[in-house]
Amino acid sequence: MCGFVCSYNDNSFQLTNSLNLISHRGPDSSKTLIKNNWQIGFNRLSIVGNQEDFDQPYTENSNEDCLVFNGEIYNFKELADEYDIKSSKISDTEVLYKLLKFNIKEIIPKLDGIFAFAYINFRRNEVFLARDFFGVKPAYYSFLNGKLYISSELRPLSSHLNSSYNSQALVEYLSYGTTWNSDTIYKSINKINAGEIIHFNLKNNKRNQYSFDLIVNKTLKAKKTYSEIFSNSVKSQIPDLPFGILFSGGIDSTLILLELMKNKKLTSIFSITLDDIEMNEKYWQDLVIKTFNIKSNYYEVKTNNNDFTPENIYHSLYQLDLPITHPNFLGALAIAEKAKFYGLKVLISGEGADELFCGYRWHLQDSINMENILGYVPSSIIAKVLGIQNFNPPKFTEMSMDEFFIKYYLQRWLTRADLTGMKHSIENRVPFLSNSLYEFSRSFSLDQKTANKTITKIQLKKMLAGSLSNDFIYRRKRGFDYPLNSWVDGSLEKIISSRSNEMINDIKTLLIPHQNSYFYSRIIFILSSFFLWEKGL
């Protein structure tokens, strides 16, 4: 995993300073290329190898073009064979660079991996930006007055442009955990959407955007069983160095863990344990570890109300690229910090299983309110408390359920995975979000995935039958949440009151119609975390 920053046609851009802002994304090496009004920089987190051959910006002809690429392409060897590419370094970066010399719109849908990249053709004066279909890896850009800026994170762009908030997008982000379309929380800075290609023609300052669907290899399509497809997906994402797994004790992470047990490079298992009887999943975590006699190092990251003091939240969020939008970001940050302490660079997690295989209780309902599902806190209240006028919620009714969960709801958790992992130079890999598993999931209807709306994720649960008890397999799903009602106290309220004495009273008044007390502690947490995040930028 890595980070890149590029600027075009702006001599005032401070490339070295910008790279320093994202040094956590790639602490192992840093390289730059200055060419034809371009400043291009790259920080590398070495996972494949330490050789300079793997460094970026990557080019084989600096007068022609170059590539900066954040992520992993798992099927690069198969694509190299398909397009008869001779790779001297056995690198997905080299293969991707050569593939992009073919028809780019044909190549990108075939990539199986997590990626965001910029391919710059100096001779043609054009740029292609692309992001993987699910949006696992982020990338941002700003295109203003003939100047183009590109970055793996927002901070290099927002600091150079001295950006102010996009108030509409800020409310969306704090409420929903993501933003609509290509908006970001800053004016004049856009994100590349999941599954999108953007082409900039810098000769005439034109931009074209294209969405793509996945093209799955025919060999993968021929595989008939879910277990085989799942096994291959997990195997394809195992790195060539020691790694760990985020293990909740739920269905998804248990399936991944049982597959990873076959690989000796799995050295560490990380679980969150809560100082709360109702929300703690330790019983189920221990049950899996004991049942399968798992010998890997097992680390519990214990969490209690002391982790929710202003001082600890400020420390956790210091110089994070975005505010956090759920308390479980703090748990993910703590796990990434511990993984780094033990010398790891890769963690594998179960994001995407619920979205692909209908794992939420909402999938069992005849109709759903998409804004209520997505809104961890009511957007209307966040807007009013922050004094943002004329807030217009996105029109979720224009989306299908599948599109909503994959292209919108999932983005909150993928943002969490990237933000929390990269703060501590940890790459998060997500085997459920492989091309082949996505293709397989689309072969089932909603009723098939939910046993006619009676059981969530039935395909995944069947895989554990005979290995674990029905009590484990069919227990009620418990999300990765925290007991905010008992953990949020007056110290966080004071953070909000320090901004405005009226905010707390406004929140209480606005919540009266909702009649849900848990919204109060959620809003206090989200707003106080936001103010603490601002302080640490």
How are the elements arranged and paired?
Elements: E1 2-8, H1 15-21, E2 29-35, E3 38-44, E4 65-73, H2 76-82, H3 92-99, H4 104-107, E5 113-121, E6 126-131, E7 140-144, E8 147-151, H5 155-161, H6 167-176, E9 190-191, E10 196-201, E11 206-211, H7 218-222, H8 226-236, E12 243-246, H9 251-260, E13 266-274, H10 282-291, E14 297-303, H11 310-317, H12 328-341, E15 346-348, H13 353-357, H14 370-374, H15 379-385, H16 401-423, E16 427-429, H17 435-441, H18 446-449, H19 458-463, H20 470-473, H21 484-487, H22 490-497, H23 503-511, H24 518-535
Parallel strand pairs: 12-13, 12-15, 13-14, 15-16
Antiparallel strand pairs: 1-3, 1-8, 2-3, 4-5, 5-6, 6-10, 7-8, 7-9, 10-11
